[in-house]
């Protein structure tokens, strides 16, 4: 019975196999999403009974006028548009160097990878200690006297450093895998073609690394849209001095769990959803154009 | 550009030397086939030429210029790999343009050259395609154009035909020959396939165990092999050998006496065993038993048995198994010394000296 024609029976058969995952997806992703939309439009409701007595755009209006929300959006955009490229380039640089290391490459890989497998709470506590104003290692190293975690001017930088460091190892590992995947002969031919080291990187390695760059960038975008636990642990349950480290996810948490403003929380969640959609969509379009050569129907 | 390997020794760590006191000259402007079984050192020679390896001792000369310690970029060596190694992210046009782009050649000049070389290797219709959209043969041509556009001192072809099917192989062999003659670039064609080498090359160098066994035209290698290795490697079906002592009683007395002390082995080409009578002068006629015949299109391979020796002939007509008087012709009959050196090549005493 090879290649049976699709019929109602075979379709139902296939559906039966898909059902477990479909049910889970609908139950835990689609339905909550729809509920969030409903909740965000509810201006008067009882969260516990789920009864909504009035609908309107008031929640979104409130967000529009809330300076804290503006700050959260700003920070989240800074993370996705600034920290993501920085972390990708940093990881690429380290991976390229590691790739040239004849010995001990494994050792360094493990070393760089450790932060990724360590719990964020532990990592944040250690960094909290490193960032201490009086006897902190960071201040000791660069001979400054900055109160990293309590000065609103520096606390965001401290958070960014932590996030960069934490994600570095995993990205390096992915880049190394990508670099290993590139056939050595392309670089050999390039060398015979008279390409300098920089030309070899720019015209051969970098374009061939594109699939890896896309993977890492999209992954980093998603991670950086969700920065929360680092803030929570580094600033002991606050969003930093004077909300200086407020991110969208943290804002959502504040509104929902601390202030019980379920409508506002749902609305900010939807804004986050929209942003994720927009930025990953833009990235996707850009990458799609960038990887024409990977597809069979090229041109 | 004449290429000279001068007394080159190269050993990989913890191994016997791959090359020891290796000396070889590749004539300028010719297509030289470097023929040899796998493990004979062909790839090592290519890597030495390309600059991937540096010899432990000895010198590599390009037209009397010592390039032994020059880097890959400086030597200007063009190379076509077995599976072409075309940049997958670049179109055919950009692949061919690559060497010029690296050398910052002006756009107008670049485009003119790309047109010229694309026309030479006949890939003009595919210029805007990506390598993955091309067939193996087309990719091969693109790789040739990319190697040639940098006007290489030497062009290295590393088993360029081994990934192609039989028909395409024949076509591309002729194409490579045509392109080489059109450009006149000194070309080294590495292969383990004797047919490719015999068809394409001006001269063939047979390499075995890191040593040049013989250099010459295909005709010379086939008819006057320098030693047993060459005689066995060139020719299909393979040369049959039997102890000299077994054949000596059947040989003319003068010949048998002359080589009685020096020859240990006789090699017989399949076309040297003939049905009698024949106008061709024969060394001897012997009754042999035909055990089986294989019909391979034009050729008939006859398996023969004579005095406990297995022999092969491709010169017999279809026959029923049985005993037949068969003649052994002098051309295609070789005597070898114990060290493998060829002493006598069927009367053409070329290798005797």
Automatic annotation (TrEMBL), chain A:
<keyword id="KW-1133">Transmembrane helix</keyword>
<keyword id="KW-0813">Transport</keyword>
<dbReference type="GO" id="GO:0005886">
    <property type="term" value="C:plasma membrane"/>
</dbReference>
<keyword id="KW-0472">Membrane</keyword>
<keyword id="KW-0812">Transmembrane</keyword>
<keyword id="KW-1003">Cell membrane</keyword>
<feature type="transmembrane region" description="Helical">
    <location>
        <begin position="201"/>
        <end position="222"/>
    </location>
</feature>
<dbReference type="Pfam" id="PF00528">
    <property type="entry name" value="BPD_transp_1"/>
</dbReference>
<feature type="transmembrane region" description="Helical">
    <location>
        <begin position="110"/>
        <end position="130"/>
    </location>
</feature>
<comment type="similarity">
    <text>Belongs to the binding-protein-dependent transport system permease family.</text>
</comment>
<feature type="transmembrane region" description="Helical">
    <location>
        <begin position="12"/>
        <end position="34"/>
    </location>
</feature>
<protein>
    <submittedName>
        <fullName>Sugar ABC transporterpermease</fullName>
    </submittedName>
</protein>
<dbReference type="GO" id="GO:0055085">
    <property type="term" value="P:transmembrane transport"/>
</dbReference>
<dbReference type="InterPro" id="IPR000515">
    <property type="entry name" value="MetI-like"/>
</dbReference>
<feature type="transmembrane region" description="Helical">
    <location>
        <begin position="156"/>
        <end position="180"/>
    </location>
</feature>
<dbReference type="InterPro" id="IPR035906">
    <property type="entry name" value="MetI-like_sf"/>
</dbReference>
<feature type="transmembrane region" description="Helical">
    <location>
        <begin position="264"/>
        <end position="287"/>
    </location>
</feature>
<feature type="domain" description="ABC transmembrane type-1">
    <location>
        <begin position="73"/>
        <end position="283"/>
    </location>
</feature>
<dbReference type="InterPro" id="IPR051393">
    <property type="entry name" value="ABC_transporter_permease"/>
</dbReference>
<feature type="transmembrane region" description="Helical">
    <location>
        <begin position="77"/>
        <end position="98"/>
    </location>
</feature>
From TrEMBL, chain B:
<dbReference type="GO" id="GO:0005524">
    <property type="term" value="F:ATP binding"/>
</dbReference>
<dbReference type="InterPro" id="IPR027417">
    <property type="entry name" value="P-loop_NTPase"/>
</dbReference>
<protein>
    <submittedName>
        <fullName>ABC transporter ATP-binding protein</fullName>
    </submittedName>
</protein>
<dbReference type="InterPro" id="IPR015853">
    <property type="entry name" value="ABC_transpr_FbpC"/>
</dbReference>
<dbReference type="InterPro" id="IPR017871">
    <property type="entry name" value="ABC_transporter-like_CS"/>
</dbReference>
<dbReference type="InterPro" id="IPR047641">
    <property type="entry name" value="ABC_transpr_MalK/UgpC-like"/>
</dbReference>
<dbReference type="Pfam" id="PF00005">
    <property type="entry name" value="ABC_tran"/>
</dbReference>
<keyword id="KW-1003">Cell membrane</keyword>
<dbReference type="InterPro" id="IPR003439">
    <property type="entry name" value="ABC_transporter-like_ATP-bd"/>
</dbReference>
<feature type="domain" description="ABC transporter">
    <location>
        <begin position="3"/>
        <end position="234"/>
    </location>
</feature>
<dbReference type="InterPro" id="IPR003593">
    <property type="entry name" value="AAA+_ATPase"/>
</dbReference>
<keyword id="KW-0813">Transport</keyword>
<keyword id="KW-0067">ATP-binding</keyword>
<keyword id="KW-0547">Nucleotide-binding</keyword>
<keyword id="KW-0472">Membrane</keyword>
């Amino acid at each position: 019975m090879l290649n049976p024609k699709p019929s109602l029976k075979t379709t139902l058969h296939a559906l039966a196999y898909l059902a477990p995952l479909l049910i889970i997806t609908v139950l835990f992703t689609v339905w909550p999403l729809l509920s969030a939309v409903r909740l965000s439009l509810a201006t008067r409701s009882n969260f516990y009974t789920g009864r909504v007595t009035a609908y309107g755009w008031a929640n979104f209006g409130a967000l529009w006028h809330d300076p804290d929300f503006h700050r959260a959006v700003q920070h989240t955009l800074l993370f996705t548009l600034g920290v993501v490229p920085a972390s990708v380039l940093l990881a690429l640089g380290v991976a390229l160097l590691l790739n040239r290391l004849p010995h001990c490459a494994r050792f360094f890989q493990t070393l760089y990878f450790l932060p990724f497998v360590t719990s964020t709470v532990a990592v944040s506590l250690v960094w909290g200690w490193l960032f201490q104003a009086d006897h902190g290692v960071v201040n000791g190293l660069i001979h400054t006297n900055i109160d990293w975690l309590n000065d609103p001017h520096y606390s965001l930088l401290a958070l960014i450093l932590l996030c960069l460091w934490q994600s570095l190892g995993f990205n390096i590992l992915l880049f190394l895998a990508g670099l290993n995947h590139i056939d050595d002969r392309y670089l050999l031919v390039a060398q015979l073609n008279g390409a300098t080291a920089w030309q070899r990187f720019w015209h051969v390695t970098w374009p061939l690394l594109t699939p890896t760059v896309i993977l890492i960038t999209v992954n980093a975008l998603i991670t950086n849209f969700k920065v929360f636990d680092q803030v929570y642990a580094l600033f002991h349950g606050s969003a930093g001095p004077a909300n200086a480290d407020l991110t969208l996810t943290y804002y959502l948490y504040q509104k929902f769990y601390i202030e019980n403003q379920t409508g506002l929380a749902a609305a900010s969640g939807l804004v986050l959803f929209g942003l994720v959609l927009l930025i990953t969509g833009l990235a996707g379009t850009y990458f799609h154009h960038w990887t024409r050569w990977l597809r069979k129907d090229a041109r | 550009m004449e290429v000279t390997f001068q007394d080159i020794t190269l050993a990989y760590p913890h191994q016997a030397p791959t090359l020891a006191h290796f000396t070889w000259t590749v004539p300028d402007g010719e297509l030289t086939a470097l023929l040899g079984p796998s493990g004979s050192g062909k790839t090592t020679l290519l890597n030495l030429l390309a600059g991937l390896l540096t010899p432990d001792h000895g010198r590599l000369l390009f037209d009397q210029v010592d390039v032994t310690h020059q880097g890959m970029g400086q030597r200007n060596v063009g190379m076509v790999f077995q599976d072409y190694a075309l940049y997958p992210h670049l179109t055919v046009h950009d692949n061919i343009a690559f060497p010029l782009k690296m050398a910052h050649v002006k756009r107008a000049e670049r485009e003119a050259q790309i047109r010229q070389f694309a026309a030479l290797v006949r890939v003009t219709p595919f210029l805007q395609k990506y390598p993955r959209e091309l067939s193996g043969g087309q990719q091969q041509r693109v790789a040739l154009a990319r190697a040639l556009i940098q006007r290489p001192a030497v062009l290295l072809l590393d088993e360029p035909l081994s990934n192609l099917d039989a028909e395409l192989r024949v076509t591309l062999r002729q194409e490579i020959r045509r392109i080489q003659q059109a450009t006149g670039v000194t070309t080294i064609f590495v292969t383990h396939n004797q047919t490719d080498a015999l068809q394409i090359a001006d001269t063939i160098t047979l390499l075995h165990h890191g040593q040049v066994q013989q250099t010459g035209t295909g005709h010379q290698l086939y008819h006057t092999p320098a030693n047993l290795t060459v005689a066995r490697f060139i020719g299909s079906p393979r040369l049959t050998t039997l102890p000299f002592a077994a054949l000596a009683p059947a040989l003319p007395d003068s010949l048998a006496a002359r080589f009685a002390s020096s020859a240990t082995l006789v090699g017989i080409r399949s076309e040297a065993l003939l049905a009698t009578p024949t106008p061709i002068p024969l060394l001897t006629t012997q009754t042999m038993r035909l055990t089986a015949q294989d019909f391979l299109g034009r050729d008939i391979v006859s398996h023969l048995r004579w005095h406990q020796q297995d022999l092969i002939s491709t010169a017999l007509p279809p026959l029923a198994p049985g005993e037949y008087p068969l003649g052994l012709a002098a051309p295609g009959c070789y005597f070898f010394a114990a060290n493998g050196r060829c002493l006598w090549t069927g009367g053409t005493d070329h290798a005797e000296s």
